[in-house]
Specification:
Largest sheet: 6 strands, mixed
Structural class: alpha/beta
Number of strands: 16
Number of helices: 14
Distance between the termini: 66 Å
Helix content: 40-55%
Shape: globular
Length: 482
Amino acid sequence: MQIKLNHVGLIKDSTIALDGLTVITGKNNSGKTTVGKTLYALLDAVSNLRTKARRDRSAYILTRLDVLKDYLTNGISFDGTLRPNDYPALDALLSGTVAEQFGQDLGEYLQMLRQELVQVDSDLLRQIGVDNILWISLDGSGSQMVDPERLRKDTLSSLDMLLEVWKKDPKLIDYARESINQSLRVEFSGQIQPVRTPDPVSTVELLGNGEAAPVYFRLSLINNGVVNDGRPVFFRMPFKRVYMIDDPFILDAPPVAVRPHRHNKKELETFFNPNRVQFHNRKLRQAVVNVRPVNVFEQTVLNDSLSSIKRQIDAILPGTFEFSSEGEYYVENGAKIQISNLATGSKMFSIIKLLLERGRLDSATMLILDEPEAHLHPAWQNAFAEIIVLLVKELKVNVVLTTHSPNFMLALDAHMRKHDIIDQTNFYQTRTLEGSFVQYHCVNDDLGQIYDDFLQYLSEMKMLRDQYLCPYGEEEEEEESE
């Protein structure tokens, strides 16, 4: 698999392989994080696509029905003539129980409600002793006095519109495009395309390998938005889940309370729910904190596949984790430590250990690590590098990572040879182009280019240090005394 990026952030005309372990090095502000953000936004946007689309569509319908309820409440009252049992759909609407009673079958509910309104005689829409009712307009243009017949006609018109929405976009082409668009905007804070030297069109492709390779994503961007030319931008999902780790301090965040979305009557323009799109750190915390039930058979499979990786992690972090209403703790030898009080390096290991224990890392997972060695001592960098290599070898996890550390780079280089995943590992280095753009180059055949880049700056500092450690004047005096 490979991702192709052109004029995304600082990246120009670059192709990056994503088979197994992908290591990206380069200077600061060279677009290394851009690859991870783009990849995460694409994959997360379409994960569980049909489930998210169904929920968002239902949220939109229920929001509109809330407005319709307010509208009809002014004109309909159940009395001895108009009995609730005769009109269950209308009764559910007026009592505000549509979601509870018909939440899984809103399409059928809309049809039922429309049939009931056709059956109800116009005279029964009039409240006793009231000749006119107050119509609350659906378009927000204000209120006016109308007769009951007008009420019913407007209601039927609104229901017809909702039925069209319910049938809209059956292949989820529009939904996938907008979901990707919003995810990219969230991850890049709205600045996906180049800022200093903007290009009119940016392109992103995620493809398989070979001439007849499958296409997973293919999209263009203009004005920091995904182009809508009527064609699909998402074709198939290569992974079931994606996680991006760039901040071990997510374990210090307040407990995540996952609540049902509260329908806001102001969100009427689209059935896409932007509140569902969350920044990657929030979703990562949910994944590590929320305990997913693991059945006995699954646990035996996990135990077999995790044995070597678990030994490596337990050598650094042997304890267990406890999440409850009382707090979040790391437990070792009976001692309970608030997870927020763990050393920063321990938190990085904790995140990986928790994802493993939750059964969230496997061949269907894309794991993106942005400078994971930043808070680790060289000894722990070496251990973390071996864990990453074992994730690729034993669990077939796909890993993309960036690094600035010569020690961590060397550890990855050594362990990928020790565990024989050379054919599953690709190394890239960024190079600066004209106009402040960067391009990625595969350096599998000459890793020395990466080491030379790192050593250049070590050598500069060593020369500076030596200059002040042994000043030239002292050297001359030593020579004269000899």
